[in-house]
Amino acid sequence: MNLNTLKLLLPVIAVTIQNNSSSTLIPPFLQDLHMPVAAIGTLISLNPIFALLSRLPVGMVYRRSRARLLISFAVAVMGISNFFYGLVTDSWSFAIVHSVNGFAYGAVTTLYMAFYVDSLSPDENRNHAMGYYVGTLAAGYSTGNFFGGLIADHLGFRITFQLAAFLSLLPCFLLWLFGRGRARGAAEAKQEVQPKLTPRELWKAILEPELAIVVITALFLNLIHQMGGVFISLYGLAVGMNLTQIGTIRAAYAGCNAVTRPISGHVVNKFGHRRLSYAGIPLQSALLMLVPLFTGFGAVLTVYVLSGFMRAVVVVANAAGLVQDVDENKVRRGLASAIYNAAGDVGNILGPATGGLIARATSIGGVF
């Protein structure tokens, strides 16, 4: 990893810490407001729904020259919505705040992924670079999950949400501190003079076979991830765990991703990203099915972290497929990022909602 890549990764860590310090607490926070399990799943689904709505518009207007300004604005909106989480008292007010937060988060992640790939130095290995990127996301998830649970145990939900809101200042500062980074010369110039995207080009990009493989994998990765991520918190509460233990489980899961993802580029080079994607998702699902067989903190932690290991490998393999297989001459960088992230949002939407229906029909453990 060169210095330019490291500078590009630092704002991502701050954004994911901010986002996940709040998202860890949302299921138990809603339960504390005496909302039913099925309603919790539905309300949480609003976030990825509005993230999905932001993807294509933001991806279509992406230009590297104005990316920092757009990213900073979206991060600021995320911070404001985080602050208002602490003020909600019912399902309607939560739905509004959660929807705004989802739209802003969708904009940030769509813009920043395209900005990151466009800003990489020419000598940076793309497989390794994508491993660093998704590994950095996991590092932010891990840190945010742990400290979100820890602070909430001692200071309560509302103060934790408001502290997370002020963290939005950090990624904005880092983004402008490091400036434009190293330009990519002809590639950047080519992008800046691209004509306006037409509806025909949009549909052609969506149906591009190489992109379709990546999209389907991203959808199922996030569907499984969200079903587990939302309901592991509620399952932990049901078997007598406290918020710190739940935060630790989620942090360890994300920490496993943070450690595994940066080094998974070597695995992708050896076995191929498609092979890993096809085999990894069934293995992760099989591990999650073991969760309701255990009630102890250590056992649940172990099984859940092993599923996180499998997810880490598949996430890197799929991200490498996005960069290697999808031709920028056929699908623009911003649009490819938008469609890729939109597929993840669909999985995020289906995961909590489907999990809520399963939990209502069976039990929380039945979700796994």
Could you please describe the fold and organization of this structure?
- The chain is mainly α and 368 residues long.
- The chain is 81% helix and 0% strand.
- It has helices at residues 3-23, 26-32, 37-61, 67-85, 91-119, 126-155, 157-166, 169-177, 186-192, 199-206, 209-238, 243-271, 273-288, 297-325, 333-361.
- The protein is globular and about 50 Å long.
- The relative contact order is 0.18.
List keywords for this structure.
81% helix; 15 helices; 0% strand; mainly alpha; globular; 368 residues
Q: How would you characterize the largest beta sheet?
A: none
- Structural class by sheet pairing and helices: mainly alpha
Helix content: over 70%
Task: Please report the number of helical segments.
Answer: 15
Annotation, overall tally of beta strands:
0
Distance between the termini: 37 Å
Cα-based radius of gyration, to the nearest Å:
19 Å
Low-confidence stretches: 181-187
Mean pLDDT: 79
Q: How much of the residues is beta strand, in percent?
A: under 5%
> What general outline do the C-alpha atoms trace?
globular
H and E string: HHHHHHHHHHHHHHH
What's the arrangement of secondary structure elements?
Blueprint lengths: L2 H21 L2 H7 L4 H25 L5 H19 L5 H29 L6 H30 L1 H10 L2 H9 L8 H7 L6 H8 L2 H30 L4 H29 L1 H16 L8 H29 L7 H29 L7
Helix pairs in contact: 1-4, 1-5, 1-6, 1-7, 1-8, 2-3, 3-5, 3-15, 4-5, 4-7, 4-8, 5-15, 6-7, 6-12, 6-14, 11-12, 11-13, 11-14, 11-15, 12-14, 13-14
